[in-house]
From TrEMBL:
Species the sequence originates in: Pseudonocardia nematodicida
Identification of the protein by name: ABC transporter ATP-binding protein
Name of one Pfam family that matches: ABC_tran
InterPro entries named among the record's database cross-references: AAA+_ATPase (IPR003593), ABC_transporter-like_ATP-bd (IPR003439), ABC_transporter-like_CS (IPR017871), ABC_transporter_ATP-bind (IPR050166), P-loop_NTPase (IPR027417)
Domain ABC transporter: 17-251
Signal sequence residues: none
SMART domains with a match to the protein in the record: AAA (SM00382)
UniProt cross-references to PANTHER family, sorted A to Z: ALIPHATIC SULFONATES IMPORT ATP-BINDING PROTEIN SSUB, TAURINE IMPORT ATP-BINDING PROTEIN-RELATED
Length: 267
């Protein structure tokens, strides 16, 4: 498929992520499956990028490469942001730990002392508006609250104690984290995520198949083709999210292109 990139951000910020000609193939011989092919993608420090595509296009594989959980078959992957961390559809909290201790866990594994990690966990729970539930365990929380705790924990892993580090800003990799929630809770958490991102400046790569979600959240939307995934097009989202007409036009444009991608694959 011909790559048609009509809009790119100006190179005003340093690069947190850079992929050049990245391919990923699973297996060998006749049974080999190519998930990604020729991916070129840059994400700036502090940028919020949504990767959009149909199911099975390699979005999650891309996140795994960025996290260092898997290696590419071809091309190069460079991640200069420090401490990549994941957030998934399921909160995946430790059921025997309180909310605060779940948030503390990555800080404990990083070797930080008890007092420092407790203070940081309290700060992050307050950031996601859960400063009053630190002593509760996951089963005592609603689904939306569990996802907020998961977000606080991911931020703890990505940002450490929140002090300046030679590793640079953290990288938060989000794999459809709100897909399992009801529409009202999802809407609330999208707004909360934007508020937290603006407060922390964390670099975010957010995978979704929901065009509306991508347009609401991202500074830039990247559309992948169906398998093997490659970058088909990018859109810069208007900074003024209150311009309903421009947002609607962008939504319709992306939706139309996504339908073309899906239709061409089905044919």
């Amino acid at each position: 498929m011909t790559v048609d990139i009509t809009t790119r951000r100006a190179a005003a910020r340093t690069s947190a992520v850079e992929l050049r000609g990245v391919g990923k193939t699973f297996g060998t011989g006749a049974g080999a499956v190519t998930a990604l092919d020729g991916i070129d993608l840059q994400v700036a420090d502090g940028e919020f990028v949504c990767v959009l595509g149909a199911s099975g296009c390699g979005k999650s594989t891309l996140l795994n490469l960025l996290a260092g959980l898997d290696g590419q078959t071809s091309g190069s992957v460079r991640v200069s942001a420090g401490r990549p961390s994941f957030m998934f559809q399921e909160a995946a909290l430790m059921p025997w730990l309180t909310a605060q201790r779940n948030v503390e866990l990555p800080l404990k594994l990083a070797g930080h002392g008890r007092a420092a990690r407790q203070q940081r966990a309290r700060e992050l729970l307050a950031l996601v508006r859960l400063d009053d539930v630190g002593g509760k365990r996951p089963h005592e929380l609603s689904g939306g609250m569990r996802q907020r705790v998961s977000l606080a924990r991911a931020l703890a892993a990505a940002t450490g104690l929140g002090t300046e580090s030679s590793e640079g800003p953290g990288l938060l990799l989000m794999d459809e984290p709100f897909a399992a929630l009801d529409a009202i809770t999802r809407d609330v958490l999208q707004g909360e995520l934007l508020r937290v991102w603006r407060a922390t400046g964390t670099t975010i790569v957010f995978v979704t198949h929901d065009v509306r979600e991508a347009v609401r959240l991202a500074e830039r939307v990247v559309l992948l083709s169906s398998r093997p995934g490659t970058v088909v097009r990018e859109w810069t989202v208007p900074a003024d999210g209150h311009d309903a007409e421009r947002q609607a036009q962008l939504h319709d444009d992306i939706t139309g292109r996504l339908r073309q991608v899906i239709t061409s694959h089905a044919a």
